[in-house]
Amino acid sequence: MLHQFEGLHKLWDTPTNLDYLNKLTKLDLLVIDDFGLMDLDLDKCRDLFEVLDTRDGRKSTVVISQFPVSTWFDMFADNTYADACLTRITDKHHTYRLEMNGINMRETE
């Protein structure tokens, strides 16, 4: 899902982007899969923050990553956005955290 943020910055103040952000905000459940596979430049930081901020405490968001949460801060190009986004993702009052270790189910025997 995070790849959907790739082009948002090009449309930032356009009705198309605002419509798209509104749709992401209104979803009952938003799944951000493969978080951390790409670094978040400043535009992606802003887009992710906008989505997370408007959903915070109102709608459910699931973030899936192969990387430990302790490494997520370094994926952001901007420390302020990193703090703001990670606070919303990891806030102990609104989140459940599951850490799983095991075999890669995509690997064949």
From TrEMBL:
<dbReference type="GO" id="GO:0005524">
    <property type="term" value="F:ATP binding"/>
</dbReference>
<dbReference type="InterPro" id="IPR027417">
    <property type="entry name" value="P-loop_NTPase"/>
</dbReference>
<protein>
    <submittedName>
        <fullName>Transposase</fullName>
    </submittedName>
</protein>
<feature type="domain" description="IstB-like ATP-binding">
    <location>
        <begin position="20"/>
        <end position="107"/>
    </location>
</feature>
<dbReference type="InterPro" id="IPR002611">
    <property type="entry name" value="IstB_ATP-bd"/>
</dbReference>
<dbReference type="Pfam" id="PF01695">
    <property type="entry name" value="IstB_IS21"/>
</dbReference>
